[in-house]
Amino acid sequence: MITPHAVPTALIADLHNVFGERLRSMVAYGPHLEDITSAPLTCLALVESLTVADLDACARAASRWHRERIATPLILTETEFRSSLDAFPLEYGEIIRAHVRVYGPDPFDAVSIAAQDVRRALETQIKSHLVHLREGYMQAGGEPKAVADLVTRSAPAFTAVLRHVAWLNGAAASGRVEATREGSREAGLDDRVVGDLIALEQRSTVPTTDPARLFPGYLAAVEQLARAIDAWRP
Question: H/E element holding 9?
């Protein structure tokens, strides 16, 4: 359950002390708010201006944030934010999918991300994922533990792409697992393989297949997803 109470008020107070009225808005996002409590809390803050002195002030608080399981917040000026929507469509798309406003207006209420920007970024990401997956398998030299580590480490990046595919196709699901499965259906992937990859990402459930034995199906799913993204049309 995503709730603004998940964000420590101390973090908001710290940023307000640094920026004062220049702090315009702040949202929390990421896996911590979707019941993956082992992940640190991540936040995006928009400010009117950002100086070296501001960075110094934030740096003094960073170690305390990290002790409290809060990642160093992403801080951008409002101008930088608006001008970078086309440069980071996947990153912003993931925030849009599941975030909560914790200070000021929601910065995503008045912006949109072009579908073609998302498709291009997805093509780059999934084809890079495919190349590195094949390369990693060869480097593993057939050693089952190394292959299992490869599958386990790379699964979260793959499931993230599936959530972007769901969003690109207008899926209504905002929950992490539901959106992943919706993207899988849109791309025509094997439900069992995707279910095991979700389990690896969640870490709270046990996969039904050993990660090393999952590799052939996983590779086939990545190849199919690359073809689906190539063929996507608005």
Answer: helix 9-19
Beta strand residue intervals within the chain, DSSP E:
23-29, 42-47, 74-77, 99-103
Total length of the chain: 234
Distance between start and end Cα atoms, the chain: 32
Matching residue, tokens 């709730």:
3
- CA-based angle 191:196:201, to the nearest 5? 120
Edge-to-edge strand list for the sheet holding 23-29: 74-77, 42-47, 23-29, 99-103
- CB under 8 Å to 17, separation ≥6 — which residues? 57
Distance CA 85, CA 112 (A): 8
Q: What angle do CA 150, 152, 154 make, to 5 degrees?
A: 65
pLDDT in tens, 57-105: 999 999 999 998 999 999 999 999 999 999 999 999 889 888 999 999 9
pTM over 0.70: yes
What gap in Å lies between CA 215 and CA 152, rounded to an integer? 10
22-26 contact pairs (CB < 8 A, 24+): 22/47, 22/48, 22/49, 23/47, 23/103, 23/104, 24/48, 24/78, 24/104, 24/105, 24/107, 25/101, 25/103, 25/104, 25/105, 25/106, 25/107, 26/73, 26/101, 26/102, 26/103, 26/104
SS3 per residue for 13-26: HHHHHHHHHHEEEE
